[in-house]
Design a protein that fits this description.
With 355 residues, this protein is an alpha/beta fold. Among the domains are: 128-196, membrane protein fhac (Ubiquitin-like (UB roll)); 201-251, no CATH class; 254-352, no CATH class. 30% of the residues lie in helices and 19% in strands. It has helices spanning 3-17, 46-56, 60-63, 104-125, 144-151, 164-173, 253-271, 280-283, 317-329, and strands at residues 133-137, 177-185, 189-196, 201-205, 208-212, 218-222, 232-234, 284-289, 295-300, 306-311, 339-342, 349-352. The strands form two sheets. Strands 6-5-4-7-8-9-10-11-12 form a nine-stranded mixed sheet. Strands 1-3-2 form a three-stranded mixed sheet, with helices on one face. A hairpin with a 5-residue loop joins strand 9 (295-300) and strand 10 (306-311). Helix 7 (253-271) crosses helix 9. The longest helix has 22 residues, at 104-125. The chain is elongated and about 115 Å long. The termini are far apart.
Length: 355
Amino acid sequence: MSEDDNKKELDGNETSDVKEPQEESPVKAAPEEPSEEEGVVVVESEEESGEQDRESEPSNEEEKPSEPETPSQPKPLNRPRKHAPAPRKKKDEKEYLPDFPYDFKTVLGALLAVSLVIFIWSVIFHPSMRIQSIDVVGNYELSDEQIMDALDIHVGDHILKFTLLKAMALAKSTPYIENVSVRINFPSSLTINVNERHKLAYIKVPDGYIAIDEFGMILEFTTFETEDVHPVLCGLELNNVVVGSYTEVTDSLAFRKMILVLGAVLDADRNSNHDDGYYFYDSVREVRAISSGLIFLTIELPDGTILQVKLAGIEHIADDMQWLLYAIRGDAFEGLPAGSLDMTEEEKIYRAYNT
């Protein structure tokens, strides 16, 4: 083959190997790894190789069965230790009187003690601490002077005079007084409160009369009948009479009925609006309850006439006493001779005594 023919053949090969340019793809192809034939050896990093080995090797943890978890014991709390407070620094003590033989606290205590003594002395001997007025409240049977003498309290005494033991002794000395209390009204007055038992009636006994209160307490004993000995509860028999004790007839039906009648008389006086000096209770002379249930009242009228009143019982005793007081105040019995009033029925009947 000639040299020209070789050149033509080479030119034809070059033209056949040349290709037309193609449009570039937006996705870049991954660079090809160099082959061993080209003499380039690719060495992988240890981390990549280790990861590949882990992926390829089966994990031992998946093969092992899961063991139950044991509850872990709580760890002890480490509480912070309390630190003792740091000692305070003492302030610089000042010496007010360096050459004085006593310290400040001793001098202050002595001054306070002297001041207290002066105050007590002035309270005891000050003229305004003397009693200038005494009020006695609640007494009826005993007068103000009797109570003050029993307590040994008088105007001019010191306001702080001790009277508690004397008040207790007074309550024990007479059954009329249940208890006594003394209230100090500074600076110069006293109030004596007396809780007194009130005399309600008398009971006839072989040697005289005894005075009792509403509960049957024997308050006093008298051997003579006077104008003040009324009203008298009749028909009761007593064997033992001890002043300051209760009578033995307090549980009897007759006694309770007569006490209720006198209570209704007192209520009629309290509810009355008249102030003419006439008191229904003071006009009652006797009360008698008999076994049949009837009750008899002996009353002295304002003109001095004696009226006998017969009651059926105590069922309407309050209304009966109100009506009777109204009739007496209205002069319904004025000019009539001595007689009796029957109030056992709705229609009241007056009968004069036979002369």
